[in-house]
Amino acid sequence: MGSKRLTRTMLLGFALAAALVTGGCSQESRSGDQAGQVSGAEQQLYTCGMHPNVIQEEPGNCPICGMNLVPIVQMSSAAPAPSSDQGERKILYWRAPMDPTYISPAPGKSPMGMDLVPVYEGEEAFGATVRINPVVEQNMGVRTAPVERRDLQQSIRALGRIDYAETNIMHIHTKYRGWIEHPYVHTTGQRVKKGDALLDIYSPELVTTQNEYLDAYTRVQNLGVNSSSTLRARSETILKSARRRLENFDISEDQIQRLAATGVVTKTLTLISPFDGVVIQQMALHGMEVTTEMTLYTIADLSVIWVYADIYEYEAPWVHEGQRAIMTLSYIPGRAYTGQIQYVYPYLDEKTRTIRVRLEFANPDRDLKPGMYANVKIETSPLEGVIAVPQEAVLFSGERNLVFISLGAGRFAPRDVTIGIESGDGFYEVKEGLSEGEIVVTSGQFLLDSESKLQESIAKLLQIRNPGQESLTNLERDITHDHREHGPHE
Question: Model pTM?
Answer without folding.
Answer: 0.57
